[in-house]
Amino acid sequence: MCGIVGIVGKSNVNQALYDALTVLQHRGQDAAGIVTCDSGRLFLRKDNGLVRDVFHQRHMQRLIGNMGIGHVRYPTAGSSSSAEAQPFYVNSPYGITLAHNGNLTNVEQLSREIYEADLRHVNTNSDSEVLLNVFAHELAGGGKLRPNQDDIFNAVRAVHNRCRGGYAAIAMITGYGVVGFRDPNGIRPIVFGKRDTEHGVEYMIASESVALDVLGFELIRDLEPGEAVYITNDGQLHTLQCATNGHYAPCIFEHVYLARPDSMIDGVLVYKARLRMGEKLAEKILRERPDHGIDVVIPIPDTSRTSAVELANHLGVKFREGFVKNRYIGRTFIMPGQAARKKSVRQKLNAIELEFRGKNVMLVDDSIVRGTTCKQIIQMAREAGAKNVYFCSAAPAVRYPNVYGIDMPSAHELIAHGRTTEEVAELIGADWLIYQDLEDLVEAVREGNPNITEFDCSVFDGKYVTGDVNEAYLGKIEQARNDAAMSQGNVASAIIDLHNN
Amino acid sequence: MCGIVGIVGKSNVNQALYDALTVLQHRGQDAAGIVTCDSGRLFLRKDNGLVRDVFHQRHMQRLIGNMGIGHVRYPTAGSSSSAEAQPFYVNSPYGITLAHNGNLTNVEQLSREIYEADLRHVNTNSDSEVLLNVFAHELAGGGKLRPNQDDIFNAVRAVHNRCRGGYAAIAMITGYGVVGFRDPNGIRPIVFGKRDTEHGVEYMIASESVALDVLGFELIRDLEPGEAVYITNDGQLHTLQCATNGHYAPCIFEHVYLARPDSMIDGVLVYKARLRMGEKLAEKILRERPDHGIDVVIPIPDTSRTSAVELANHLGVKFREGFVKNRYIGRTFIMPGQAARKKSVRQKLNAIELEFRGKNVMLVDDSIVRGTTCKQIIQMAREAGAKNVYFCSAAPAVRYPNVYGIDMPSAHELIAHGRTTEEVAELIGADWLIYQDLEDLVEAVREGNPNITEFDCSVFDGKYVTGDVNEAYLGKIEQARNDAAMSQGNVASAIIDLHNN
Amino acid sequence: MCGIVGIVGKSNVNQALYDALTVLQHRGQDAAGIVTCDSGRLFLRKDNGLVRDVFHQRHMQRLIGNMGIGHVRYPTAGSSSSAEAQPFYVNSPYGITLAHNGNLTNVEQLSREIYEADLRHVNTNSDSEVLLNVFAHELAGGGKLRPNQDDIFNAVRAVHNRCRGGYAAIAMITGYGVVGFRDPNGIRPIVFGKRDTEHGVEYMIASESVALDVLGFELIRDLEPGEAVYITNDGQLHTLQCATNGHYAPCIFEHVYLARPDSMIDGVLVYKARLRMGEKLAEKILRERPDHGIDVVIPIPDTSRTSAVELANHLGVKFREGFVKNRYIGRTFIMPGQAARKKSVRQKLNAIELEFRGKNVMLVDDSIVRGTTCKQIIQMAREAGAKNVYFCSAAPAVRYPNVYGIDMPSAHELIAHGRTTEEVAELIGADWLIYQDLEDLVEAVREGNPNITEFDCSVFDGKYVTGDVNEAYLGKIEQARNDAAMSQGNVASAIIDLHNN
Amino acid sequence: MCGIVGIVGKSNVNQALYDALTVLQHRGQDAAGIVTCDSGRLFLRKDNGLVRDVFHQRHMQRLIGNMGIGHVRYPTAGSSSSAEAQPFYVNSPYGITLAHNGNLTNVEQLSREIYEADLRHVNTNSDSEVLLNVFAHELAGGGKLRPNQDDIFNAVRAVHNRCRGGYAAIAMITGYGVVGFRDPNGIRPIVFGKRDTEHGVEYMIASESVALDVLGFELIRDLEPGEAVYITNDGQLHTLQCATNGHYAPCIFEHVYLARPDSMIDGVLVYKARLRMGEKLAEKILRERPDHGIDVVIPIPDTSRTSAVELANHLGVKFREGFVKNRYIGRTFIMPGQAARKKSVRQKLNAIELEFRGKNVMLVDDSIVRGTTCKQIIQMAREAGAKNVYFCSAAPAVRYPNVYGIDMPSAHELIAHGRTTEEVAELIGADWLIYQDLEDLVEAVREGNPNITEFDCSVFDGKYVTGDVNEAYLGKIEQARNDAAMSQGNVASAIIDLHNN
């Protein structure tokens, strides 16, 4: 998962891009980058780290220009390397830079094709670099000295024909404009909006509407599946549906965990979807455990808080913040002659005994992935004196890997993979465990926009909407993850991106 | 306000000090420092920045030794400089390092005295350096080649006789041990605890009990007002009441805002005190506004959440997280030829319209200081569609400056200074405003430990428990603040601490 | 002027490239870069600064691979920007990186052509990026999936047809090999050599033979004008004359000042050429000033020492190091409210009075460019008590700008531009001044290799061997220099290279 | 060996101190520091590295004040740690900072005494910190609130009574002035001078006169053995002989190698002393090898050049710079799985074959210490084709360790320790070897100032002028060196100085 943003403004856009990236920082804390364009010249700064650490005064001063794009990165499943920050750049045609959120499932084939067709060298493991080269190749095919919106949209159309997977991308054509496009299933989110300034109208494209809100932009709408938006450097906005086979199947996990609650995705307010998840979960509890005997509902901070408040309301049980999160987690250093110790959950959360002692507590989390943290938290609750510890997950059991850009473990690392709810409950040490039903989750989100008839729920049901994900593919990415993990000791940071120091 | 910690352990204490400082980071994000002692030699690292930014692998590797102290700093009122990180060091006698939380009110006189009596040069504006030199001078007076607990306690006694103000301090005597002491009114908090390890018992002294919890130490108790605890480097723990005039008057603002909710201060769980603040505030609302018509209670994140939950419970009104906090605030850069822009509250908080549109909302904050943020938040609530915006403060009106170590503005900057509640309500734009009554606040805390008969409530009632704070003193620190503010443009960072690069 | 190096080895070449760059550091102290290739992937590190400051352990560890190229940069005349470090990279075709020494005189036309023909965006002011794109375009024209030596040489041939100016370049074709080529006049130097290792033969291409010597490579020979050498990644070496119009006219200024004395360029040992310059200068002095009355010959350290020793020998006069060079020059800092002060020559040189007091001293420098330093040095000699100060230059009067890659001032800044020797002598304050005659300089170098019939002596005689340099061109680069100088205050470092942070 | 400087000026002295340190940088490239005093407050910056790397604009801006001292450090023999940069600071009395060049031979006893007498903790292995504490203790003894010159001189007198060894030191008394003092034998050099400015007379104290020259100060004179100079902050200069037993025995090695040739030490111009070393060496060669058959004299750059020129003159043989020094030496990096390789002399020097091929060459070095470099250079000369390689040393055989502040190996590492000239010649591979005779060396220096009747020549003759250096002491420092070397792998940088980050 990553966050992307692009702005075509009327004065320097560096500060606005920077601010937007801080608002999108929850989508990726691993690396950050901004490229701006001024008088046909590009200015780039990117590096590993948080936005606030990557950009200093001296960098910002150089990022001049009224047009630019930015990126925050979270390592993507299937990519063994963590060394590539975005935006990426190719100099032909026109000089194109691109920021990408998602994952291509046919990246190997594409990589081969662009080398064979165009002799284009791809220097990283990043599918984003491949996506950029595919787009560049298709745009070059037009051969226009000065590309217009039709050329841009034709290139996006060709990208849709060739690329498989989930992707939302923002590219800048040096000297011409900024284009945003979304995969034909609309798996990854992307919105655009505008604001009026004294110098004229400015446009922003971003992963989430909250970036628009905070910067005073007004949301126009989400890009539709397969649609592209192109804003020329003089401020003309064009949109076109570039996919013939597009149909809406957005990633439901955005609503469960990824997105900020105050974002509006595909017409659904994430916050409200989460409230409804709490409601529906409460109904299930009341249905399955009418005599639940719960004394207090306690969220695992921070994501599950919204669901948990409403769950408590519907159960008619007290909501209490029984865990305090340590907001300033540090590192564990290895001293000479010492083995590495694992950061335990104790360093991240502290239990307020008062809320646990002698009570039946219902812990609420947004989802359960590996289950290791769950287990420790339940243990903490018991040590704090809880009589019984119940656990519920606002999402169904996570049983399958994600292939559309969320960094999720491979199947065998998922605690619920091939296990029943009872087996998971026992493994994590809960007195009982309740998962949201998938229909309920879908309903909780759909109520916000009944026009969406389908979601990508692959991590829950193993159905991959792009139709090209089979056992062989899943086996290959699992192998890649394992290889990456094993070699991490000595190669982890062995790759210097070409565009970086 | 600062956070302090000291550990006498059985193996290297660097990681434990580091972890403790991250847990105490909410008490100061301005600078951090650790000094350790090994075989009579000190190892120091301190710098401006967060704990995670100040200490790198190379620093930690050098911070060897089984004994050490640490500090996180928040700039203190009355100090015009922000350049001094702690711990401080003097080499005579014994080599002493010290970390301090609080503020001395007679620092000028002390500074003069230590120069005249001992020719001791103080190189910073920090009262902590003065406190260290007073302690060092008194300890040197013993003239012992090898100081024991009596010498240490005598020195603390003399410190109490000479120093005025609020202070909790931890000092390390090179080669001998670590001593913690608390001012005779117990204004600033300090606790100590222990943990068993395979190598023996380890002791920790810290500003808040949460540092003990997270590191697996068991809280023994708070230091009493005027009391000192001395732990020798071989693990003997001694305590002694070193003040003759000690009486309990701890700072109530720790419970309102400063401390983590999961800390236990002077026998009171901060979290529970805040729940009671919510209760009592609800009672006042029901009393004064029986037909309040409130639709939803919304906290200003993060501190007020605990009070707000309970306030909502007692009002029987929905509690909702209507504001989402941006956790990754960045900087505002100044581009050439541009004026500095102020970060607005919009970049810190985003309103979820759904919770405001057409409703009577009750916003809850822990306290109101300058009122500028309040005003912007209320404006945001209105822009989000609120019908009426009510505001309540879990603490009474803040009307007086703090002189015991909390960085509070001077009187004329406090919105409630010399104003009625109605006047403040009008200034911040609230439809109505309710402050907690001071008796209720005191009661909310006291219920946790009825033995405490008095609190320092000076910011609310202008009564300074040390008895030495008069108009002249307050005028002087106000002047100092103004001078500092005015010269900040060109001198702010003009001071290099002697112990720093 | 820059230094370039490329190695195709049998194990990691990073250390060897690094060492070679330190040996070539005299050719450019402004920036440094290395790119290596391993398994079809490139690893790059480049930044402003000396070699020893640019490469740290963490960078070197990532620069893996048996093949790579490196660069040290000196800002080139005509380039207004100092922000581009090399090697440069384009990803199509194959992924090509390039390091360049020299200057193209038709860069504007080329830049336009490559955009129009190939839509290739050039993001810097660097002619090296243009050269790379021309080469890339020509190599792409072959369209081969796997290029062989013929494809490479054809591309070089096309480069020679299109590019004007002086250039020695080393390019790496990702996965295939390293190619070095030299402009058809052989203006800039480039050599290649080999060494045997236990794993097989390794090849190096470099600006100067001294890089070969120090690393234990044996000089094979200089590339001939227009010739290219291509070493495949498995160690096959191919050479081909790629120019039809090549004729030898190497830059004579390499011998005067640029090259290290222990380098062998075009068959001439620089050191020996300088000895002969001293001899010939002595003969001229004896001829023109038979009663010279010189008491001591004193070089201006460091370059002129070789000529000066031999000059003294031939005059039969003592040679003495009367000036001591300060090897650790620092910066002049600007304090608030202070005007910038110029570093005077006094901070670089200190005169030993003993060698000046009451004597007729002959100061020897390699050449006189602006004359400002000369003037100060002569003044120092007088202050040290010299009776008469004579000055001689091992090179003729510098009267014209350089357009082939040496950073020389524009014409009007050259003290000898439009002035007689006597006028220059008066301006610099010398009692008399002797310049080497151009025929003598040419002879001094040619004696080392009589096969070279012509040199580029343009800075002395204004004859530009490429035939395309006219008044209009010179006027344009002079204007560019002026513009650059004027805007330096606020834009100097305003350009971030795309490949840099 | 270190370089020290102190200035009492009429405006900010930071730039002047910085410039002076760059001029003294040859005395120590390991660390650098400056402390200034303004309005009773100290500003310090020190760190490992060259002067140009330690001080940036932000540091310089903070180093305000008209008075200050500076230091460049070379690790001293007998000190196992390399982590302490100077100046050092103690806060009592007055706040004193000190920069020291030399070595105390009774540091252990002093360290014990100052702890016992004053409970002063010394946190480093540096004898400089001990010297500072002794001085501070003695100055505190006066007990004056405002010390005058008598108090200062009394403290220096007491230092002389208690300290043994060689030392030149500059201390600053915060708010009062700067004092320089020299050990009673005058082993280490120290001079002072003045310059007139529009604001009044400014004074500088420095290790070498060249720092005065370059900054436009006029040399007043050397401090005499045991003498002190005190310059008050308002510009009054006082001097006093503070030793009763002082007698001149300056270190002769300053003239051989340490000092810059353009420095005047104890009335002797180092440059001229080196010329005379060349003369006397020539005479010895002519005496011992009348038929020497030498074709060319070649110096090992840089120090021996002065002697070699004159040696060649007196022999009537050509002087030629046959070795070219690489001025930009880099590091050798350790790649994973690779053993560390030693930098060979080949990376530092390159031989110009022309000057060696078929010739009898006389190589000249200033001295021979370990002999390892010599051996490699002679080997290079042979590989370059020399017929015979003769070697001469401008100093006698180095056979004993230095205990007065020069970082010299211990006895058993000295190639000449216990060996005859012939044995050394064989070991280094020279056809024959000639050492300067000690009487000749002494004479070469003494001719510059016949008033000096004795020199410290201990490295040549094993006679230590302080009279307290015996076998036991030498054994102890040898042991300390060995321990340090052995533990370097894991502890080398394990010490953080208290005053550093």
TrEMBL record, chains A, B, C, D:
Record has Cytoplasm as a keyword: no
CDD domains: GPATase_N, PRTases_typeI
InterPro entries per the UniProt record, alphabetical: GATase_2_dom, Ntn_hydrolases_N, PRTase-like, PRTase_dom, PurF, PurF_N
Binding site for Mg(2+): 303, 365-366
Cofactor: how bound: Binds 1 Mg(2+) ion per subunit.
Residues annotated as the enzyme's active site: 2
Pathway: Purine metabolism; IMP biosynthesis via de novo pathway; N(1)-(5-phospho-D-ribosyl)glycinamide from 5-phospho-alpha-D-ribose 1-diphosphate: step 1/2
Chain ranges of the Glutamine amidotransferase type-2 domain: 2-234
Obligatory cofactor(s): Mg(2+)
GO molecular function term, any single one: magnesium ion binding
Gene3D superfamilies with a match to the protein in the record: 3.40.50.2020, Glutamine Phosphoribosylpyrophosphate, subunit 1, domain 1
Protein family according to the UniProt entry: In the C-terminal section; belongs to the purine/pyrimidine phosphoribosyltransferase family.
Function recorded in the entry: Catalyzes the formation of phosphoribosylamine from phosphoribosylpyrophosphate (PRPP) and glutamine.
Protein name as annotated: Amidophosphoribosyltransferase
Source species of the chain: Halopseudomonas xinjiangensis
Taxonomy of the source species: Bacteria, Pseudomonadati, Pseudomonadota, Gammaproteobacteria, Pseudomonadales
